[in-house]
């Protein structure tokens, strides 16, 4: 709570205004009118500083009260803001009064200039490229917005506010950090000296109401048949790898696949920053931890995967496998922990297998390549590959069965494949769709052993 007071005092010293967003950003701010239509920008900046000072005087030690909940603190701050603004004798328009109130509240209770964009449900990503350059992603397309921080120090305070809430730090000795917001949105920050032109902050927003399988069908990310197929694969305890590039929607798909897990099973989730939103009753969430300032105490994904095997899991869900933890994940899949799900960065189903092989070698084990491939072929049943197309849409492009070893090669079979042949319409939107290849997977018998049966028409060719 003391850091909140520090931010109030710092904001008061800054005595500068946060940005007015473009009207179409729907952030509640109003654009400035013509010259002479109200107080000058400098006068508004001065007023904002005065209101900050009054707020500090009025709230004082109350900001240190640890018994206050976030909602109570918000009500108290907003009430104090209203009182401070009511005492101002300078004539202000309703728009200017609302603007100053919102900007101060955003700095105290939220994340300053980017708070309006975080509130906008139409935005999926917020990118800060230094204090004077803010970009957002809307419908898969990037756009620069009118907004900036006061200076580098203001941006650094915002980053510190985010990472300190989950017990992480960012400084010159540790200039990169992964974190998350209270709603699960993923945060990455890089500060100088690594970031040459000012601190970089990237926030991938997650919906307060997680996407369901019906949402993905409506978006065109998958077809109705594919959804039925993947639901059967999850309930039938097949091991699934969700692959794709950065920003392709892997975590969203992983979340939807996890929703198919029966509610009577014990699920252990393992992530760098906890962002999965599972609604089953029996979910245990584990989160990795970076080293402390002395370089000790780090707990990585591999350690958590090892430990999860002692927690009697029915399912292990790993947010992302990116290093030697791939070996432990394969071991888990091959030692009775069927139904595990994880994500991997790759360019396609075949590349996914090559990436897993490479990550297993990172474990430092002197294993022959054939032995690694046999482990992969035995462990992984299905690869769900996702891509972000040139129109900004995120689509599942491959649902591929991992069959068996033939010689030194793992054979793959596409069950569903995205049809790119229809091209794009005049607006640049993809006309393709995910279609069945007509091939029946070999693991249907394994599903039958788990009392899961599929309608044969799921695999019928589509024309």
Automatic annotation (TrEMBL):
CDD domains: VirB11-like_ATPase (cd01130)
UniProt xrefs under SUPFAM superfamilies: P-loop containing nucleoside triphosphate hydrolases
InterPro entries cross-referenced by the UniProt entry: P-loop_NTPase, T2SS/T4SS_dom, T4SS_GSP_E_ATPase
Keyword Hydrolase: yes
Keyword Repeat: no
Residues annotated as domain Bacterial type II secretion system protein E: 309-323
Disordered: region residues: 1-42
Pfam families according to UniProt: T2SSE
Highest taxon listed in the record's lineage: Bacteria
Keywords: Hydrolase
GO molecular function: ATP hydrolysis activity
Protein family: Belongs to the GSP E family.
Designated name of the protein: Type II/IV secretion system ATP hydrolase TadA/VirB11/CpaF, TadA subfamily
């Amino acid at each position: 709570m003391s850091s909140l007071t520090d931010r109030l005092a710092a904001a008061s010293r800054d005595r500068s205004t946060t940005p007015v967003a473009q009207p179409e950003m729907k952030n509640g701010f109003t654009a400035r009118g013509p010259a002479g239509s109200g107080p000058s920008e400098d006068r508004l900046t001065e007023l904002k500083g005065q209101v900050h000072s009054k707020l500090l005087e009025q709230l004082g030690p109350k900001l240190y009260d640890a018994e206050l909940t976030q909602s109570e603190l918000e009500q108290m701050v907003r009430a104090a803001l209203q009182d401070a603004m009511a005492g101002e004798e300078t004539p202000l328009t309703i728009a200017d009064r609302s603007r100053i109130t919102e900007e101060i509240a955003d700095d105290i209770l939220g994340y300053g200039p980017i708070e309006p964009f975080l509130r906008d449900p139409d935005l999926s990503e917020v990118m800060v490229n230094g204090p004077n350059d803010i970009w957002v992603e809307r419908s898969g397309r990037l756009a620069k917005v009118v907004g900036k921080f006061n200076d580098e120090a203001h941006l650094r305070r915002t980053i510190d506010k985010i990472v300190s809430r989950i017990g992480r730090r960012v400084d010159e000795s540790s200039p990169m950090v992964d974190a998350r917001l209270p709603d699960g949105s993923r945060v990455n920050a890089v500060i100088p000296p690594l970031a040459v032109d000012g601190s970089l902050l990237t926030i991938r927003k997650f919906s307060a109401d997680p996407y369901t399988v019906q949402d993905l069908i409506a978006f065109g990310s998958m077809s109705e048949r594919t959804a039925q197929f993947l639901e059967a694969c999850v309930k039938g305890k097949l091991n699934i790898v969700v692959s794709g590039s950065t920003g392709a929607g892997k975590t969203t798909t992983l979340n939807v696949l996890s929703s198919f897990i029966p509610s009577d099973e014990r699920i252990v989730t393992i992530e760098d920053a906890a962002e999965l939103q599972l609604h089953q009753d029996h979910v245990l969430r584990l989160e990795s931890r970076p080293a402390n300032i002395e370089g000790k105490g780090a707990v990585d994904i591999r350690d958590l995967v090892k430990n999860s095997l002692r927690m009697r899991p029915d399912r292990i869900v790993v947010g992302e496998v990116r290093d030697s933890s791939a070996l432990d994940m394969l071991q888990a899949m091959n030692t009775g922990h069927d139904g595990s799900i994880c994500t991997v960065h790759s360019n396609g189903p075949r590349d996914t297998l090559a990436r897993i092989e490479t990550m297993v070698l990172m474990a430092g084990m002197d294993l022959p390549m054939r032995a690694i491939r046999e482990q992969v072929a035995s462990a992984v049943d299905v690869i769900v590959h996702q891509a972000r197309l040139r129109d900004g849409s995120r689509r599942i492009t491959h649902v591929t069965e991992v069959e068996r070893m033939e010689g030194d090669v793992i054979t793959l079979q596409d069950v569903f494949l995205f049809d790119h042949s229809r091209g794009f319409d005049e607006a640049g939107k993809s006309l393709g769709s995910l279609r069945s290849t007509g091939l029946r997977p070999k693991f249907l018998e394994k599903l039958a052993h788990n009392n899961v049966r599929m309608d044969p028409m799921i695999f019928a060719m589509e024309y």
